[in-house]
C-alpha cells in the first residue's frame, strides 16, 4: 500500500490508511498464485515443512517507493494499492510506471468519480485480479522462471448459498480465511455481489440480534467458520496425510482471539477542550470508554442512556468504535495468515469489568504484596476470569477450547490468560501469548516485525544467552553464585549491570539471542509507564529504544513490568520497538525466591528443549515451564512436611511424572482438578494446600508472537518425518 504517513499518532485511533475499502479486497485474494490450483495442497505443503506463510502486506510511503522498487526488482507478482489522495501522487505514478512489469497490478483507492488513475494494469475487484492471473498464467510463470502445470481453479463456491456467507462482519473475516485455505475464490469481475445479495439479510439479522441481546447467537456464526478451518487440519491428521512428531503435539494452528477492551487508562491522554476539534475527539473517546457490547455484540443499553446528554458526540463515537473494529478485524486477519489460523472476535468489554480489574491498579500494588492479602489473589483472579468468560464465551466456544489441543494468540489489553474455563484458568490448560491493543498501532507493528524477520531457536541457544543481574541487594545476591556456576557449566553469560551504560556494554559485547533481566521492576504513575531498575537507575522505555537494548527473546524476572490496570506504556513495548520478538513479562509483584527458581528451571530446561524435539515453539516451552512452577511450588510445600528420604523420593517421583504429563494438553485439566486431593494424600493432612499458595504462574504474560519462534531441532525433525517419499 502506497500512502502518506499518518502524522497524528493517537494511541487509541487506528492509522488513517487502514480505514480504506481495500481491507476486504485483501481478504478475498490468495497469498500465493499456487493456491488458485489447490488451496488444500498448498496448506499441506506448509504443514509438512512447518512453514509460516503470512500475507505479504507492507505500507510504503512515497519517499521510500523508488528505493523499494529498485531493490525488489520486477520478477514478483505484486499488487500495488495506490492512495490517489497522496500529496506526491505524480511522483508515485512516475516511479510505478518507470518500474512497471507485466507482473505488477494496480488498485487505486480514494479515487474521485471519473478520475483516470494514469496507471497500467489497473484492476478494480478481487475477481478481476484473479481472472487476470489465471488468464495470463503462462506468461506469468515464464517471467517468474517457474515450470509448472497449468493452474485449473476449483469451482467457485463463494456465493452465500453454497458455503453460507455469514450476515455478521466478524464471522465474515473468518469465512474468508476458510475459503482461502480451501482455494475457494470468486472469479466474478464484480465481487461486491456478496454485500448486495445479503443487504436484506443483514438488516434482518441486526434486528434479531437486538431482540436476543443476552444470547451468543452471533458468536455461533463465527464458530461455524472456525469449525470449517479446523476440520481440514483434523481430517489431514486422521488420514495421516501429515504426521506428528509426538502424540502430545498438535497440527491445529493457534486460535487468534480478538478480545477488545475499552482500557480506562487511556483517559490519561490529553486534556479536552470543547472549543478545539482535536480535543473534541478526546471528549468523544472518553465517553466511548463506557461503550461495551452485550453477549450478542449489540450496544449495551447503559451506554445508550449515557449518551442522551451528548447527542453531538454520537456520530464521532460510532466512527471511533467502527474504525477500531475494522482495524482489529483486518490486523487479526493478517496475524491469522501466518498459520492459516481461525479468528474469533469477542464482544467489546468495558466498564463492567473495571471493578474486577481495579483491584490490580498500580496504586494498590503494595496491598497485593502484603502476605495476608497475597493468598487471596486466587479468588480475585478467579472472579475476573469468571466475569470475562460469562460475558464473552459461549458454551459452545468453551467446549471447543476445552476439547481441542491448540495454542491461543490473544489481541487484548486484558489479562486473557486469566479467562476461567469451568474453574481452571486458561493459562493452566493452554499456551497463551498476547499482543496488547494499546497503543493500537502496535498490533500492525507486531505483524510487520514477524513478517519480515523470522527467528528459530538454535541448538546452541545457551551460548547466546545473557543473564543481567540488576541488583546488589542480599535477596538477589544469594542466588547469583548459583546462576553464575550454572553459566560456567552450561555456557551462558552473566553480567552485573547497575546502570544503563553497563547494560549497553554487556549486550553489545555478547550480542545475545536471549536476555534474562533479574532485577526490580516498577511503574511511574506520572508517565503511566513501567521500567526496570538497574542498581539505582531506572531503565526506561526511552533508554531501551535509544540504545537499542534488545534481543529476539527476553524474559523479565522483575515485578510489575506489564500491569493490567494503571499503566499503558509497559517496558516490553520498548523492547519490541528495538527489535525483540517475544517478551515474557509480569502483571503483578513476584517473589524474588520463586521467580529466581523459575528462571533457573527455565535455563536448565532450555538445554534439553534446544537439542531434543520436545517443544514446537518458544511459547510452548515458556508456558510449560511457568505452568509447572505452580506444581513445583505445591510439591515443595508438601516436601517440607516430610522427613524421611523414602518420602522425599516418592514426592520427587510423583512430581517428575506430573511435570511430564503436563506436556500433554489432554492431561492438564485432570491434573488441576485432582491436584488438591493428591497433595492432601501425600501430606497426610486435611488442608487446602493450593489455596495457601500465591499463584505466581498467573502473574506472567508472554507478549508478542512467541508461537512463531520455533525450535530449530523440532522443525528439522518434523520436516524429515513428513518428507515426500
Number of helices: 32
Query: Which secondary-structure class do the elements indicate?
Result: alpha/beta
The residue-averaged pLDDT reads 88
β-sheet strand percentage: 5-15%
- Which percent bin holds the helix content? 40-55%
User: Major beta sheet, specifics?
Assistant: 10 strands, mixed
N-to-C span = 41 Å
Number of strands: 19
Strand order of the largest sheet: 4-3-5-8-18-17-16-12-10-11
Unreliable parts: 157-162, 271-275
- Oligomer category: single chain
Radius of gyration: 26 Å
Question: Based on CA inertia axes, which overall geometry fits?
Answer: globular
Would you give an account of this structure?
It contains 32 helices and 19 strands. It has 725 residues and is α/β, with parallel strands linked by helices. The protein has a ten-stranded mixed sheet with strand order 4-3-5-8-18-17-16-12-10-11, sandwiched between helices. A three-stranded antiparallel sheet has the order 13-14-15. Strand 13 and strand 14 form a beta hairpin. About 2% of the residues have low confidence.
Short description:
With 725 residues, this protein is of the alpha/beta class. Helix content is 47%, strand content 11%.
Summarize this structure as a short list of keywords or feature phrases:
alpha/beta; 10-stranded mixed beta sheet; 3-stranded antiparallel beta sheet; globular; 725 residues; 32 helices
How are the SSEs ordered, and which strands pair?
Layout: H1 22-27, H2 39-48, H3 62-72, E1 78-83, H4 89-98, E2 104-109, H5 126-135, H6 137-144, H7 160-163, H8 169-182, H9 193-197, H10 199-211, H11 217-238, E3 255-258, H12 277-288, H13 301-306, H14 314-336, E4 343-345, H15 354-358, H16 365-368, H17 371-374, H18 377-392, H19 395-403, E5 408-411, E6 420-421, E7 424-425, H20 426-429, E8 432-435, H21 441-452, E9 456-457, E10 465-469, H22 474-477, H23 480-490, E11 493-496, H24 500-510, E12 514-518, E13 520-524, E14 529-534, E15 537-539, H25 541-547, E16 553-557, H26 571-577, E17 582-586, H27 592-609, H28 618-639, H29 645-661, H30 665-683, H31 689-692, E18 700-704, E19 710-711, H32 712-721
Parallel strand pairs: 1-2, 3-4, 3-5, 5-8, 8-18, 9-19, 10-11, 10-12, 12-16, 16-17
Antiparallel strand pairs: 6-7, 13-14, 14-15, 17-18
Helix pairs in contact: 3-4, 8-11, 8-14, 12-14, 25-26, 27-28, 28-29
Amino acid at each position: 500500500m502506497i500512502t502518506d504517513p499518518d502524522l497524528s499518532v493517537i494511541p487509541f485511533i487506528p492509522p488513517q490508511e487502514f480505514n480504506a475499502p481495500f481491507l476486504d479486497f485483501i481478504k478475498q485474494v490468495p497469498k500465493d498464485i499456487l493456491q488458485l490450483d489447490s488451496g488444500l495442497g498448498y496448506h499441506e505443503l506448509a504443514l509438512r515443512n512447518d512453514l509460516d506463510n503470512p500475507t505479504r502486506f507492507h505500507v510504503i510511503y512515497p519517499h521510500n517507493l523508488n528505493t523499494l522498487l529498485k531493490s525488489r526488482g520486477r520478477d514478483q507478482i505484486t499488487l500495488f494499492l495506490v492512495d490517489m489522495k497522496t500529496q506526491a501522487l505524480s511522483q508515485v505514478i512516475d516511479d510505478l510506471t518507470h518500474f512497471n512489469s507485466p507482473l505488477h497490478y494496480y488498485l487505486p483507492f480514494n479515487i474521485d468519480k471519473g478520475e483516470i488513475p494514469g496507471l497500467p494494469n489497473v484492476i478494480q475487484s478481487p475477481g478481476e485480479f484473479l481472472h487476470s492471473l489465471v488468464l495470463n498464467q503462462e506468461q506469468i510463470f515464464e517471467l517468474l522462471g517457474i515450470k509448472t502445470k497449468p493452474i485449473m481453479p476449483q469451482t467457485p463456491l463463494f456465493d452465500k448459498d453454497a458455503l453460507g456467507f455469514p450476515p455478521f462482519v466478524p464471522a465474515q473475516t473468518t469465512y474468508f480465511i476458510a475459503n482461502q485455505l480451501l482455494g475457494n475464490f470468486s472469479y466474478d469481475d464484480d465481487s461486491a455481489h456478496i454485500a448486495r445479495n445479503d443487504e436484506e439479510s443483514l438488516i434482518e439479522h441486526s434486528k434479531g440480534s437486538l431482540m436476543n441481546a443476552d444470547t451468543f447467537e452471533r458468536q455461533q456464526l463465527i464458530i461455524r467458520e472456525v469449525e470449517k478451518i479446523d476440520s481440514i487440519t483434523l481430517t489431514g491428521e486422521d488420514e495421516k496425510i501429515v504426521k506428528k512428531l509426538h502424540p502430545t503435539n498438535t497440527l491445529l494452528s493457534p486460535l487468534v482471539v480478538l478480545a477488545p477492551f475499552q482500557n480506562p487508562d487511556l483517559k490519561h491522554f490529553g486534556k479536552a477542550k470543547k472549543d478545539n476539534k482535536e480535543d473534541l475527539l478526546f471528549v468523544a473517546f472518553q465517553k466511548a470508554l463506557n461503550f461495551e457490547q452485550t453477549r450478542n455484540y449489540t450496544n449495551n443499553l447503559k451506554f445508550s442512556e449515557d449518551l442522551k446528554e451528548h447527542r453531538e458526540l454520537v456520530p464521532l463515537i460510532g466512527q471511533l468504535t467502527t474504525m477500531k473494529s475494522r482495524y482489529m478485524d483486518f490486523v487479526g486477519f493478517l496475524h491469522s495468515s501466518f498459520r492459516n489460523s481461525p479468528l474469533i472476535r469477542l464482544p467489546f468489554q468495558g466498564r463492567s469489568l473495571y471493578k474486577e480489574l481495579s483491584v490490580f491498579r498500580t496504586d494498590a500494588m503494595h496491598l497485593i504484596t502484603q502476605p495476608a492479602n497475597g493468598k487471596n489473589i486466587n479468588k480475585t483472579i478467579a472472579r475476573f476470569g469468571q466475569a470475562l468468560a460469562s460475558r464473552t464465551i459461549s458454551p459452545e466456544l468453551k467446549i471447543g477450547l476445552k476439547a481441542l489441543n491448540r495454542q491461543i494468540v490473544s489481541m487484548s489489553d486484558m489479562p486473557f490468560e486469566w479467562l476461567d474455563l469451568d474453574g481452571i484458568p486458561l493459562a493452566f490448560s493452554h499456551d497463551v501469548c498476547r499482543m496488547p491493543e494499546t497503543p493500537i498501532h502496535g498490533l500492525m507493528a507486531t505483524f510487520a516485525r514477524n513478517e519480515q524477520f523470522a527467528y528459530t531457536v538454535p541448538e546452541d541457544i545457551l551460548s547466546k544467552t545473557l543473564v543481567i543481574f540488576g541488583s546488589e541487594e542480599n535477596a538477589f545476591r544469594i542466588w547469583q553464585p548459583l546462576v553464575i556456576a550454572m553459566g560456567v557449566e552450561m555456557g551462558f553469560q552473566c553480567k552485573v549491570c547497575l546502570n544503563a551504560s553497563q547494560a549497553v556494554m554487556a549486550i553489545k559485547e555478547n550480542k545475545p539471542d536471549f536476555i534474562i533481566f533479574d532485577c526490580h521492576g516498577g511503574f511511574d504513575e506520572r508517565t503511566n509507564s513501567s521500567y526496570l531498575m538497574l542498581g539505582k537507575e531506572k531503565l526506561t522505555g526511552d533508554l531501551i529504544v535509544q540504545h537499542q537494548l534488545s534481543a529476539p527473546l527476553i524474559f523479565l524476572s522483575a515485578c510489575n513490568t506489564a500491569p493490567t490496570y494503571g499503566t499503558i506504556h509497559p517496558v516490553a513495548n520498548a523492547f519490541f520497538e528495538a527489535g525483540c520478538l517475544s517478551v515474557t513479562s509480569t502483571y503483578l509483584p513476584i517473589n524474588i525466591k520463586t521467580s529466581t527458581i523459575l528462571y533457573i528451571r527455565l535455563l536448565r530446561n532450555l538445554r534439553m528443549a534446544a537439542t531434543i524435539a520436545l517443544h514446537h515453539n518458544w511459547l510452548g516451552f515458556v508456558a510449560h515451564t511457568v505452568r509447572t512452577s505452580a506444581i513445583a511450588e505445591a510439591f515443595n510445600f508438601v516436601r517440607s512436611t516430610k522427613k524421611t528420604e523414602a518420602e522425599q523420593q516418592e514426592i520427587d517421583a510423583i512430581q517428575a511424572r506430573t511435570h511430564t504429563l503436563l506436556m500433554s494438553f489432554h492431561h492438564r485439566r485432570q491434573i488441576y482438578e485432582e491436584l488438591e486431593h493428591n497433595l492432601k494424600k501425600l501430606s497426610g493432612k486435611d488442608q487446602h494446600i493450593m489455596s495457601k499458595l500465591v499463584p505466581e504462574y498467573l502473574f506472567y504474560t508472554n507478549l508478542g508472537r512467541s508461537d512463531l519462534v520455533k525450535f530449530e531441532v523440532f522443525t528439522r525433525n518434523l520436516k524429515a518425518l513428513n518428507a515426500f517419499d
